[in-house]
Please model this.
Amino acid sequence: MDKISSYETLFIVDVQQGDDSVKALVDKFTGLIAANGTIESVNEWGRRKLAYPINDLTEGYYVLVNFKSAPDFPLELERVFGITDGIMRSIVVKHDEKKASAKPAEAPAAEEAPASDAE
Model:
């Protein structure tokens, strides 16, 4: 059996297709991810201005999904993103398990910062 890993995907949907089409694409991809893995969180950032125009468009609907799956699924997810009309950009990133376990050690340093601001 394949080892389950943590991944994150961010995709941008073309807002010119209308709200119903945007919702349908978000549902399609969250459903695809749920069918092939386990969704940890879905964060819909909504309509945002793009950093640079893509195909003469200046706005997109951003969706961030954190999930766990077998290592072969992210490649298929990227392929489906690439052939789906309405997806402007997408990226799938594997979470580094070693860095994830190091994050709690960084928390005390962050807690000290507000104390120095109280002058």
The first strand starts at residue 5 and ends at 14. Residues 97-117 form the longest helix (21 residues).
